[in-house]
Amino acid sequence: MATLTFHGAAGTVTGSCHLFEAGGAAYLLDCGQFQGGPDLEQRNFAPFGFDPREVRGVLLSHGHFDHCGRIPLLVKQGFQGHVICTPPTRDIARLILLDSAYVQREDFRTEHRRLARAGRRARAPLYGVEDVLEAMDRFDRVVEYHAPVELEGGARVVFTAEDAGHILGSAQVLLEYPGADGRSRRLLYTGDLGENERPLQHAPAPPPAPVDVLVMETTYGDRRHRPLEESVAEFRAAVLETVAAGGTVLVPTFALERSQEILYHLGRMKREGVLAPEVPVFLNSPLAIDLTRLYHRHCRFCRPEVAEGLSVGRSPFAFPGVHFTEAPEESRAIHNVPGPKIVLAGSGMMAGGRIRHHLKHLLWKPSTTLIVVGYQAEGTLGREIVEGARRVEVFGEEVAVEARVLTINGFSAHAGQDALLAFARAARPRHVVLVHGEPSAAETFSRLLRGALPEARVTVAREGETLEV
Ligand SMILES: [Zn+2]
């Protein structure tokens, strides 16, 4: 008998961590952190709910923090198996986890100074840089798409990674294993699924139908995306208007995939002659710069036209006027560059990072356009601004919001409702299990699925619940 137990991303979008057990061996599908506010983040400090020493392997779908962020903790608590993923995912996870360790260390030092004055102690970080480096030693098995590997543990479980089209190197996880009746069974875990028309990534690989169990994400299970071209057109228009008026375009971006996509769109505008070559574009995020380099190293995982360009030195991220600013003094020097200019900086939700320096300098100027291209969680500075705050606090100072604020939602790296439904239909599953969605998204999508696939059993996963698969 095989089972699946949910230890995260059930009833919420973050903290993906599902325990698959078959024939006495246990494997994890992802091991990510909870994100989005103190209540959720508190859960990262709670016990896993299983013994990490007994887990034989982690099948990691992709390098986003909410999918890999608890791996160093798993290793700290005795996990000795292998983390198995694609080559880009291994490299992305290394950068993302190291960055997290640095941020945790800085946060701890600040908190420590603050609490020490009150005679209290700050809580120690979940893990440090040395824990991440030790965890990276467990990433000693890489897999290519469509290349089945038999997992260790003697349970005759075969794992195949298939392209999920979400970010560089992202994979769907296909497991084949003997069922209770001795017949071979197939479980497909989508990880995060991409949309069909992305500039850098392939469309998700079609599911290997029929599958017995389809474990699928439902981030946008209750929403349709508008076509990407409309969002791109809106983005281009806003950039050109601001540049024509000599202003600054500020784009808070997520370091992985979104930064590279925005660079790609700006590069196209330059190559098409729509945007003047001399208008400077700053990628002001060391993490995003490091991640961009991985697109060069792993270009064969991108769309053919992108891969071809990258392999012969025609990078879609290199164009006249682009500056990758790494050193803090280079970052500060951007303030002295007269407009028009375009600045991409993290963090995506404006909760930290270099974007806040730019906001302090530019948010009070009507000549600035702030283009928000990603989800803004409750409680973040970004959410406050997109909800229309007239004044916000940045670095303890009050700043008036006089800039034009534009939210463009079409750049999501997740499949919308239509694409999710088409994928589920194509899989011809006997049982669909919904994870990685807010309750309303998962419920809405489950109703839709029950109508579309009347033969299939549909389950909305609950935290801690075990299903026979
Ligand atoms: Zn993701």
From TrEMBL:
The lineage of its organism: Bacteria, Deltaproteobacteria, Dissulfurirhabdaceae, Dissulfurirhabdus. GO terms for molecular function: hydrolase activity; RNA endonuclease activity. CDD domains: TTHA0252-CPSF-like_MBL-fold (cd16295). Residues 259-385 form the Beta-Casp domain. Signal peptide: none annotated. InterPro entries: Beta_Casp, MBL, Metallo-B-lactamas, RibonucZ/Hydroxyglut_hydro, RMMBL. This is MBL fold metallo-hydrolase. It comes from the Bacteria. Residues 14-247 form the Metallo-beta-lactamase domain. Pfam families: Beta-Casp, Lactamase_B, RMMBL. Keywords: Hydrolase.
